[in-house]
Structures are given as structure tokens and as C-alpha cells.
Amino acid sequence: MKKRKSFGVKLWLWFLLFSAAIFTALWLLQTVFLQNFYDGMAIRNVERAVDELTARAAEPDFFDRIDETAVSGSLLVFVTDENGDVLYSADEYRRLYGDADGADNPYHADGTLNWEKGALRNLPYSYRTLAEKLDGAETDRVGFVTEDGAAYVAGVRLNDGRTLSVSLPLGAVGGTVGILRVQLLWVSALSLALGFLLAWRISKRFEKPIAQLSRSAKQVAEGNFRPAFPKGFCAELDELSDTLEETASRLEKAGNAQREFLANISHDLRTPLTMIKGYAEMVKEISWSDREAREKDLDVIMREADRLTALVNEILEFSAMQADGSAKAYEKIDLSRAIRDVVEQFAPFCEQNGYTVESEIADGVAAPADESQIKRVIYNFIDNAVNHTDESKKVRVSLTAAGGSARFAVTDYGNGIADEDLPYIWDRYYTARNRKNKAVVSGLGLSVAREILTAHRAKFGVDSREHCTFWFELPALPPPPVPPTPPASPAPPT
């Protein structure tokens, strides 16, 4: 099987991959795509400048606005008349030379440029193309990139016949790109080295608590249910540590319960098996020829066999209940009739042993349930009450319907259950561990009842404040319809 990389190595590799992706994007943006970004922004700046200057063309300070726009946007601006003669020009260096009419203006003949007195800067070669496009355009405004791609030019015919031309070079970032490449080379090398070390440090920092959690989890798997789970690194790992601690605690309890279960079931199986074997030997060796003694011994063997069968059946039923945790759709049953059926099952036992079952069962109460399973719960509750009632040997059974619920309750008149024992009465073998008489019980009755009621999503519990009352509640439904009585057949003729 291929060995997988550790969490630290994977985190380190992903961090390096992230750093490489960031620097790749940075290189592309600052070198390959920088010219495209610059050209796009330059074109937008030229168009915006044309909009602003066109709106201010009729103002007295129009030429001052041209100077400000040219300097702030590094633009070359010309204003010409109908004949193409230059009326005014400005560029990003315009304000460095003072007023256009000043003696220090290099555009004049007495300046360093030795131009004709009063002449302004010469028109660029692209002006002819601009004029031609304006003459052939349907609107008074055009914009284009020069044939050599060196500049973007936009022009507009003003209302007074003058022409406004604004242009900006597009190849100005060529030298900048070279500088950025050298700079990015150093920055990338240093950043990657720092990222390499930082990724290694972070991966080790994250790997340490996870490795500790892994070692602790292995100790739980080996049977040590109380290892130390590290905390304090981050909320998610603290939550995982809490979950593992709870899991270890539950596994410890489950292991203890399993050992206790095996010990108890061994005891309960050993007792009837021992009695069956002992009485069988007595029949064989002593009472075989004595009919009366033999019958008594055989009755004991049959009773213990029944006890053993009941125990095995409850163990199997309990296991099946725990294995089948799926939700089911139950049909409507006549709960009143089901309870009366179970009470009648106890009639021979009560008559033989002097017990009394007081019944207060409402008529026509229906509920969604599995009838055989609910009967098993009712039987277990009544059987538990019979086994734990006091010397009066009385048990009270009731069924009431109110507020959309059907409530079944069984009360015995014994000493009740201690408060500290109430949380455990539904556990396996609670009754066997705490039985107060010699009744034949398996200790799984309430556990089976709990599994059935949980599957039915029923409310259930026990009230032991005065006497001990076990109860459960199911949704009450309208009673099933009573089939119509068929008409009486006519009497046959005599």
C-alpha cells in the first residue's frame, strides 16, 4: 500500500504551492500585463480629459484649464483654428516655463528653441490623421491609436469651430518593466526563501498537536481509556480532544458494561442449568420410583427450563432491538383492547398466588404502534410491578386519554426506588442486581421495554415519589370504526 504523506508535509507543500501561485500572478501582472493595463488606463484618461475640457471650452480660463489638465495627466494638448493653425498648446512641462507671453518661454524666438516670435509648439504628425478622421466622422469626436502604436489621440470639434486635440504616449512603461523585473527577481527569491522557512515552521506547529492526538487515540484503541488529550492549540482541535475524551469514556463504560453483562448472564444461566442437572440426577437416582417426588422434581426441572428459555428469548430480543434502529411506520391499534388482553394473561397467575390487578382502562383509545411489541412493554411493566409490590399484593393498571396523548401506567405499592438508583433502572440486569424477592425474572424486561418505546418515539419514565409507577405515552388517535352489524337473516320457514 502506498504510504501517504503526513499532515505537516502536505501543509508545507500546499503553503509553497500557494506562495508560488501568488508570485506567478504578481509576475504576470507586473510584467506581461502591465503594458495592457497602462494602455487601458491611458485611453480612459485621455477620453476623460477631452470630456472635461470640452465642457469648459466657453469659459474665459479655458487655456488655464488646459495647462492644469496637461500637467496633471501628462498629456499633450493642442487647440487649433479652422485652418489648422495652433492657437494654444500645453504638455506636462508647461508650467516649468512660465507664462506663454513671458520672456523665458522657450516657445518664443528669443528663447532657447529659437522659434519664430509668437509661435507655439509644432503640431504632432498624428494631427493630420486626426483632422481627416474628424472630417469623415458622423460625429464631432474621434479617438484612435496611432499606426505605430506609440500614442492614443482623441479630438473634438468645438462649437466655435476650433479643434481640441489630446494625446498620450502608450509605450512609456517599457523601461519601467525592465526595472520591475529586476526588482521582482530579488523580491521573489527572498520571499520564497522566507516562505519556505515559514511553511516549514507552520507545518511543524500544526503537526505536533495532531500527532499527540493520534498517539492518544492509539492508546484508547489499545485499551487505555484515560490518555492525555492535548488542548490549547485551536478551537477545532480542542473540540476534537473533547470528543475523543467522551468517546474513550463511553468505550470504558461499554467495556465495563460488557464484562458485567457477561458476568450476570453467566450467573443467570448457571443457576437454572445447575438446578436442571441436579433435579434430573435426583429423579434418576432417588425419586424415579416415587411418583409424587418424581412429579415435584420434574416440575422444578420444567420451571427452570422455562426460566432459561425466557432468559434466552429476552437476550435475543434485546439484541435485535439494539441492532434495528431504523424508524418505522406503525398502524393504528386498539390500545384499550391490547391492555385488557395482557391483564387477562396475568389472571391465572394472580388467582393462584393471591395477587390483585386493579384496572382503570378507558374504552376506545387507539394509538399508532406495533401491537405485539407494545403488548410486550405492557407485560414487562405489569410483571415488574407484580415482582416488586408489597405484602398487599396489589397492582394498579390505568389507561387515560387527554390532550392528544394516550397514557398507560402501572403502579405497585412497594418501597419504591431510591433516587440514586433511578438513572440506572433501564440498564440491563438492574432488576437482577437489585431484586428484593425470589421471583423468576431475567433482568432484561425494562431494557427491552426501553428499546421498544424508543423505537416508537414514545415518552416514558418512572415516578417513585410515593409508590413506584412506570408509564409511557403514545399519540392518541380516533378509535377504529366499528363494523356494522349485518342484518339478521330471516327465519327459515317451518
Q: Kindly, what is the distance between the CA atoms of the first and last residues, rounded to a whole number of angstroms?
A: 95 Å
Largest sheet: 5 strands, antiparallel
How many domains? The number is 4
* Lateral arrangement of strands in the main beta sheet: 2-1-5-4-3
CATH class of the largest domain: Alpha Beta
- The best one-word shape is elongated
CATH fold name of the largest domain, please?
Heat Shock Protein 90
Spell out the CATH superfamily of the largest domain.
Histidine kinase-like ATPase, C-terminal domain
Q: Helical amount among residues, as a percent range?
A: 40-55%
Number of helices: 12
Rounded to the nearest angstrom, the radius of gyration is 50 Å
Arithmetic mean pLDDT? 77
Architecture per CATH nomenclature, i.e. the level-2 architecture of the largest domain:
2-Layer Sandwich
Strand content: 5-15%
How are helices and strands ordered from N to C?
HHHEEHEEEHHHEHHEEHEEHHEE
Query: Could you name the ranges where pLDDT drops below 50 across 5 or more consecutive residues?
Result: 99-119, 432-441
Number of strands: 12
Determine the structural class based on helices, strands and strand pairing.
alpha+beta
